[in-house]
């Protein structure tokens, strides 16, 4: 990903991230990031993430990955914490991104 090509928007609606019936995160301070992939990615402040619903997996560069263990689990690398950043990703430090192909994300 070209970090300087990201477009980051403030999401004004509340955002809830779920796996089946388990709430993984819920925030009124989410960011919506365009440019990482075709589908925009929601990032929520780490303070609004229920880490007890996930297990830490691996770290790659500036990202710590998590797999979902709640509600049957089995969702590998469904979320990632931005631990360090530069350029456009500096604004995402201490936010957690969620894979929209693996989790149910509700905005509004």
CATH class: Mainly Beta
Residue stretches low in confidence (pLDDT < 50, at least 5 long) are none
Helix fraction by DSSP (H/I, runs of at least 4): under 10%
Question: In total, how many domains does the architecture comprise?
Answer: 1
* Major sheet details: 7 strands, antiparallel
Give the number of helices: 0
The mean pLDDT is 92
* Shape summary: globular
Proper CATH architecture: Beta Complex
- Helix-and-strand structural type: mainly beta
Q: Give the beta-strand count.
A: 10
Helix and strand layout, with pairings?
Layout: E1 7-10, E2 15-19, E3 22-27, E4 31-34, E5 41-45, E6 54-60, E7 63-68, E8 75-82, E9 95-98, E10 104-107
Antiparallel strand pairs: 1-4, 2-3, 2-10, 4-5, 5-9, 6-7, 7-8, 8-9
Detailed description of the structure:
With 108 residues, the protein is mainly beta. It has a single domain, classed as Beta Complex (Metal Binding Protein, Guanine Nucleotide Exchange Factor, Chain A), CATH 2.170.150.40. The protein has no helices and 10 strands. Strands 1-4-5-9-8-7-6 form a 7-stranded antiparallel beta sheet, with no helix packed on it. The chain has a 3-stranded antiparallel beta sheet with strand order 3-2-10, with no helix packed on it. The chain is globular and about 35 Å long.
């Amino acid at each position: 990903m070209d970090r300087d090509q990201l477009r980051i928007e403030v999401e004004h609606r509340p955002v809830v991230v779920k796996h089946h019936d388990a709430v993984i995160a819920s925030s009124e301070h989410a960011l919506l990031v365009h440019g990482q992939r075709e589908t925009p990615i929601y990032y929520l402040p780490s303070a609004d993430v229920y880490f007890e619903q996930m297990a830490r997996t691996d770290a790659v560069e500036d990202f710590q990955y998590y797999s979902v263990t709640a509600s049957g689990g089995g969702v590998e690398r469904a979320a990632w914490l931005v631990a360090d950043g530069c350029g456009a990703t500096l604004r995402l430090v201490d936010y957690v991104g969620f894979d929209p192909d693996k989790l149910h994300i509700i905005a509004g």
